[in-house]
Amino acid sequence: MLTDLPSIHQDIVEQLDYFISTVSTDLRLLTLNPFGRKLCGIAADHDLMQQPLYVHNFHDKENYQFLLNIVFPHVQKHSYWQGSLCFFDQQHNCIPSHLKVLAHRDLAGTIISYTGIAHTQPSLDTKTLDELSKQLFADAIEGIMVTDTQARILKVNPAFTSITGYEAAEVIGKTPAILRSAHHGADFYRQMWQTIEENGYWQGEIWNRKKDLTVYQQWLKISRVLNSDGALSHYLAVFQDLSVIRSKDQQIHQLVNFDRLTRLGNRELLVSRFPQTLAQCRQHKSKLLVCWIDGGQLSDVNQQFGLTCGDQLIQLQAERLQQLIGPEDTLVRIYADDYILLHQTKAGFSQTNKLIGHLLEVLKQPARLGDEVLLPTPHIGVACYPEDGEQEEDLLHAAELAMFAAKEKGSPGLNFYNRQVGADYHRRALIRQKLQAALQTNELQLQLYFQPKVTLSNGSLAGAEALIRWHEPELGTISPADFIPIAEQSSLIIELDRWVVTQLCKQLLCWQQKQLSLPVISFNISARHLVEPDFTSWLLGCLQAYQIPPSALEMEITETALIDNEANAISKLQLLKDNGMRIALDDFGTGYSSLCYLKNMPLDTVKIDRSVVSDLTTNAKALCIIKSIQLLASELQLGLTVEGIENQQQHQILVELGCQQAQGYWYAKPMPAKQMALQLTGSL
């Protein structure tokens, strides 16, 4: 059993071939092991208490400052430091070493001492240094030339031959005058040699000549080499071919700042040019137009014809834009078929509008891609300095918002930024963000409301439509007319639909458990959701999970759900109908109102939109339309529900026409589930 560990540890330290020393916090040596004493030339009987030594005794000024400023502060934070460091023996000979410094702390965590452990790194002998020097001379990428004191060439390296074209045998014994071009006069060389004699070296750019008589620029440094007595023994010249370096710099500049597909500038060029352009505008008090250009249709081209055709479209757009811009303009491609144009001008609005109009017109021209001819739909958003912003980021953001506003109009167009557009965009972005958070956190911000449907013949409850309502703590109550279109622009509408269906299933199950008499409850599904591959399997699976029969529900869809993929939509609707679910065509009269849909779709009900009945009491044509739809629905054996009934006169006309069901504020506004439960106990 080990009983004297400190003594054993001390014996180990005494025997190790390492420099090991413990020092106090004021950097005085407390201990130094035998190997460390021998290495530094300190006698074995040197009493460190009587004859104190300090850390600074083992280091030059530079290394000591490194220890004070870097090493010890690092140890105080991280407990240890290690790295290469040179220290000195008592004769001030440098000892290269790898050093590790540790901190020792008391129970309170305060540092009470440090220990340094170093193992020496062997120095290079003269023979090894000579071999390294030879290798360095041979492998250097710079040309090297050694001359005697009379400037006669004694030796050149392989890089010299590679750069100048001269073999060593062709130049040895001659002077560097063989390399001179006619670009410099005698005064240049006289001043150069005078500088070498006064300063010991000269360096700078110089034009020299290769063996093939090509004149090129060098970066040259000529140094005096002295012998041990301080007398001149040689001259050493080291040079680089600047033409190669600058060519590579130009290639790097092209790769970094220019788009490889179009040769237009890229984001990096925009970032570097934008501040300069703004500075010029401030100085000359000129305007700056920042145009965000969307070429249009690239994603469609990539999907239908492939990426090669997409690249051809981008190249064509770049060529067309370049034809219209001036030498002072900056045109960059930032991604896909989106471009940024910076155009300085002092011209009036009409002239600048004319320029942007030309950009739009040239991009609208038919684009021939192989055998295909496309009609692009470009959009341009424009922001102006200083009216729309004074910083790069603000102007780019404003131009992008203006482009989005132009895009929302559908057809090719341009749009100038205005602050209302920006405010609307920010509100839409905030609503999108808040809605996503509400769906993910399952907070009670979103609620299901129900609006009853009545049987017109007797006023009884015929059904109800599940509607979503949203009260956001920061923004207040947000209308579905605001947040649903925003959700429809992304996959959020799918999450929203599925939230509604899931909550509806939970509510129906609750009502069933209370043994309430339930009419058919309708719910809305977006066109985007209907085309999802897993839509029907998810919907039927959700109903099965909550034990809700499909016959208890009616799914409402709009005509837009059928326009892009009618066959696919109809097959999904037929599958749901075969499982017992009722299908209603919502908002009839607001879209194409194609009678083919009524013929081909597996429908149970048609819902007439409120816009058709809003002027029912004053517009004979509206009355005629409802009569026709009511007769058509009856002949096709379809149910008919009229939405948006808001007064007694509208209600009475529908009764006289023999319409089956109606829905609107005249009967009941959308209500929360608790209030709807009261309606389920009897008629309205």
Automatic annotation (TrEMBL):
SMART domains: EAL, GGDEF, PAS. Residues 286-419 form the GGDEF domain. CDD domains: EAL, GGDEF, PAS. Residues 129-175 form the PAS domain. SUPFAM superfamilies: EAL domain-like, Nucleotide cyclase, PYP-like sensor domain (PAS domain). Pfam families: EAL, GGDEF, PAS. InterPro entries: Biofilm_reg_signaling, EAL_dom, EAL_sf, GGDEF_dom, Nucleotide_cyclase, PAS, PAS-like_dom_sf, PAS_fold. Residues 428-684 form the EAL domain. This is EAL domain-containing protein. It comes from Alkalimonas cellulosilytica.
